[in-house]
TrEMBL record:
Belongs to the adaptor complexes large subunit family. Its main location: membrane. This is AP-1 complex subunit gamma. It is found in: Cytoplasmic vesicle membrane; Endomembrane system; Golgi apparatus. It comes from Hucho hucho. GO terms for cellular component: AP-1 adaptor complex.
Length: 676
């Protein structure tokens, strides 16, 4: 490729490169040729070469060596060179580079040029990359152009003033008088620039904001003129008269009406008119309506107008454009706390958005649905949320479960419903719940005393069905350890009881302990539950000891420590598990628990290993006069055959003199002396 190749030819060759290396080679050769020509005297190709260099810059290759060429071309008297020079300055220069200061004088001269197009180039460049120092130096020139008679220049000057105010906020006072006078212009471009400039001034200075509140009636008339005007080909966009200017005016009205009753009252009728007369079938109309809604919600508007705004957002939810549905739900999320009842009317549409294919729409619909949960709709809305949980994307599961838990905790109609809901969530997405879920659920179960039997039966069923969900398994193990006696009893009014034996329960816990899916924490729950069952069952204590002792040499340090401590407990209280009678298939065991220095609780347990039931069982006890005896009612008077059941009776003793005690028929030689 020769150095004098045209821009179009260079673009064709670069695009035709088959590899990145080939492209780099082409660009390096062309850049070398451009450098060489920059060093030569002006031969009329400077703007041509800089244009090629700007294309190279757009591809991401270094082009900084063209900065000084931009300065030279800006100072050129030829318009075509000046145009490329200003374009290069906007692309290659910024306020951090010293070269940008070299064009300040050229810009100042061009702002006074006789051609409006040269003035426009200078204004656009200053608005794009003017530094704070340049803005201070050239601010008087911009203020002068804001008062010019040329609408084309005034529009550009207004937008340049916006950049200056952002760079140097104190310049706002200089532009305020001129900005106010621009509102009387008829040209839409000038009005657009004026509204943007006034918005910037009001956002940065409270005094200026108060000053421009007096212009609210003028802005309202301007907006009414746009809404009620007939068809104008110059400004019409999809049937809406200059929607860009309408949106800018609405944003300015929102700032002026915020926290001000007078300004808000002056624009209420206008906002109602815009909300009812704007067609939302096209994007342009939707944009105007959306800004109207934001303005209504941000100012001190009437209640009826706020309901109208919420209804507009509700219509947006039915729009086929996902972007419109998204911004609608984003807006509803912001106002759901202040206008809860109005938003609640669109609950069905919001819930339907949970089925949207777009992930961002789903997330917004989820957040809004959770915000709509109340004591009135908790049951119906929770069904929808649980249904969504079963099919929601993995990245939304943690947020969904957390939201459901919070809603259930605040609005649960009953403790049983609360427990059922959390168990449903654990079954569906137990791997995505937060760490505090398990202790929170355990606390809930503990306080629901009347539901202990129901809960332990339900959790046992869940445990034998699936042990992969760690949080659910942990709660199930804890519940079985605490209320295993209710499970073994096989009686439950709240749910259909399950006939469970001691071996069944221990088998389930042992499965958890041996499963590769169980985490160390889950095994800890299972081991502790197994240990607790030693006080609630009678025939498998030795099996429990065997299970616990195995983990005394476990590789997991915490699990090993628990097993060692539990084994120590077994040995410490061996002397409190005493057989006092064993004859003709009947075994009577005595277990003591010292309550005070002289008080003791004795539990007598009778079992029957014969082939027939033993009926009419009566346990009697006699004590010396110095001992006070209180016998509680026995658990029954029939001992089932084959060891399938037992009868227990509690005896309370108060023995201040600590005398020896005897059975009716048997001397209790092994009665624990350390109990006294």
């Amino acid at each position: 490729m020769s150095p004098s190749v045209r821009l179009q030819e260079m673009i064709r060759v670069i695009r035709g490169a088959r590899t990145q290396g080939e492209e780099r080679g082409v660009i390096q050769r062309e850049c070398a040729a451009i450098r060489a020509q920059f060093r030569q005297a002006d031969n009329g190709t400077r703007s041509h070469n800089l244009a090629k260099l700007l294309y190279v810059h757009m591809l991401g290759y270094p082009a900084h060596f063209g900065q000084m060429e931009c300065v030279r071309l800006i100072a050129s008297p030829r318009y075509n060179e000046k145009r490329v020079g200003y374009l290069g300055a906007m692309m290659l220069l910024d306020e951090k580079q010293d070269a940008s200061l070299l064009i300040t004088n050229s810009i100042k001269n061009d702002l006074s040029h006789s051609s409006q197009y040269v003035q426009s180039l200078a204004l656009c460049t200053l608005a794009c990359m003017g530094s704070a120092e340049m803005c201070r130096d050239l601010a008087p020139e911009i203020d002068r152009l804001l008062r010019a008679s040329n609408s084309y220049i005034k529009k550009k000057a207004a937008l340049c003033a916006v950049h200056m105010v952002r760079k140097v906020p104190e310049l706002g006072e200089l532009f305020t008088p001129a900005a106010r006078s621009l509102l009387s212009e008829k040209n839409h471009g000038v009005l657009h620039g004026a509204v943007v400039l006034i918005t910037e001034l009001c956002e940065r200075n409270p005094d200026t904001l108060e000053q421009f509140r007096k212009a609210v009636p003028e802005l309202v008339l301007m907006m009414k003129g746009l809404v009620m005007s007939g068809y104008s080909p110059e400004h019409n966009v999809a049937g809406i008269s200059d929607p860009f200017l309408q949106v800018r005016i609405l944003r300015l009205l929102r700032i002026l009406g915020r926290n001000n009753d007078t300004a808000s009252d002056a624009m209420n009728d206008l906002l109602a008119q815009v909300a009812t007369n704007t067609d939302s079938s096209k994007t342009a109309g939707s944009a105007v309506l959306y800004e109207t809604v934001l303005t209504v919600m941000d100012i001190k508007s009437e209640s009826g107008l706020r309901v109208l705004a919420v209804n507009i957002l509700g219509r947006f939810l039915l729009n086929n454009d996902r972007n419109i549905r998204y911004i609608s739900m984003t807006s509803l999320q912001k106002i759901v706390q202040t206008d809860h009842n109005a938003v609640q009317r669109h609950r069905g549409t919001i819930v339907d958005c949970l089925k949207d294919q777009d992930a961002s729409v789903k997330r917004r619909a989820l957040e809004l649905s959770l915000a709509l949960v109340s004591a009135v709709n908790i049951r119906s809305l929770m069904k929808e949320l649980l249904l969504f949980l079963s099919s929601c994307p993995p990245e939304l599961r943690a947020h969904t479960t957390s939201g459901i838990f919070n809603a259930a905790e605040r609005y649960a109609p009953s403790q049983r419903w609360h427990i059922d809901t959390i168990l449903h969530v654990l079954t569906t997405a137990g791997g995505d719940v937060r760490d505090e879920t398990v202790p929170n659920l355990i606390q809930l179960i503990t306080t629901a005393t009347e539901l202990h039997c129901y809960t332990v039966h339900k959790l046992y069923r869940a445990l034998i069905t699936d042990i992969s969900v760690q949080s659910l398994v942990q709660v199930a193990c804890w519940c079985i350890g605490e209320y295993g006696d209710l499970l073994l009893r096989g009686e439950c009014e709240e749910t259909e009881p399950v006939q469970v034996t001691e071996d069944d329960v221990l088998d389930a816990l042992e499965t958890v302990l041996q499963s590769h899916m169980s985490s160390p924490a889950t095994r800890g729950f299972a081991l502790t539950a197994t240990m607790k069952l030693s006080t609630r069952i009678t025939h498998n204590v030795d099996r429990i000891r065997s299970i616990v002792s195995i983990y005394g040499s476990c590789i997991d340090v915490e699990l090993q420590q628990r097993a060692v401590e539990y084994n120590a407990l077994f040995k410490k209280y061996d002397h409190m598990s005493v057989t006092v009678y064993e004859k003709n298939g009947v075994t009577l065991k005595l277990q003591t628990d010292r309550q005070t220095d002289t008080g003791m609780t004795v539990t007598l347990t009778a079992t029957n290993s014969t082939d027939g039931d033993i009926t009419g069982l009566t346990l009697q006890a006699a004590v010396p006069k110095s001992v006070q005896l209180q016998m509680k009612a026995p658990s029954g008077d029939v001992i089932p055959a084959h060891g399938l059941g037992q009868v227990t009776q509690t005896v309370l003793l108060n023995n201040p003199n600590k005398v020896g005690l005897h059975s009716d028929t048997v001397q209790i030689d092994s009665f624990p002396s350390t109990a006294w």
